[in-house]
Amino acid sequence: MTSSPVDPLILERSRRRIFLALFTALAVALHTLEALLPSPAPWFRFGFANIFTVTALFLYGAGAAWGVMLGRVAVGSLVLGNLFSPGFLLSLSGGVFATALMTISRALFGVRIGPVGVSVLGAAGHATGQIFVAWLVLVRHDGLWRLFPFFLLVSLVTGVLNGWGADALTGMLRRHRAFSERLRKDEG
Amino acid sequence: MALRDLLSRTTLLDRVIVLVLFAAALAGAAWAAVAPGGERLVAESGGKIVFTAPLGADLTFTLPGPLGETVVALRGGVARILDSPCTHKVCIGMGGVSRAGEITACVPNRLLLRVEGGRGQEAEYDLLTR
Prior knowledge:
The complex is a heterodimer.
Chain A: H1 8-36, H2 50-59, H3 62-80, H4 86-109, H5 115-138, H6 144-174, H7 181-184
Helix pairs in contact in A: 1-2, 1-3, 2-3, 2-5, 2-6, 3-4, 4-5, 5-6
Chain B: H1 2-8, H2 12-33, E1 40-45, E2 48-54, E3 59-64, E4 69-75, E5 78-83, H3 90-93, E6 103-106, E7 111-116, H4 121-124
């Protein structure tokens, strides 16, 4: 395919849209892959898909982060065939809590917070959201909260790792032509 | 150095957030670990209590659920699910429960096992004086 002469602004905008679609697609792929992997401990997930939510938040803004997360949960659950099941509900509640915390922290702290901080807050939000909805819907028993510190510990470790991943990805993509400074403030 | 490179990728606020959350999680874990030992094992199926036993008992029993029968073992004050007809076997992987307030469950089979503390709870707080 040859590239036709086209308004560079439109070209950049299209490139950015394609990247966002790729983020969502990759997040779905990771979400599905992780669900298929045997987990080393019950309820333990790396949450690698969150790398793309964080990256979208930093490269595009809050709206894109919500889009990637909701798209991942919706399409991911269709792929796994667990739409509206308890597992789907836990994914969704974790994702909503995580993304809410991440977008709010980014809005509050701006450049003072980096991908690692955002990702860790997201991981903590994910653990909180999951256990809260599990307590609300599945097991109405206070003993569930005793498990919470352990979930939180695991999620913090994965949150830091994912934060570094998102930081590396963001740094790499900022050098791409689709994310030149010119358009950064235009969208998101 | 790799570690320095990773640290340079974080802002001051990032580090503060990570440390505060870690401290909170560790404190919570410590609090959960010192919870008093339980007295009674209670099994619920679909919200109704179907089985209770003193935690000191030594027995293996089966509980019916929508999917089939779940096998539970109570041994040495620890209750654990040995086998269940669910697909992911998460309940088996969750291990044993022994402390008051701890639960284990087979959600697909609608079974919930919880440990209840009795009046002996206060005595357990004497850990420091022992």
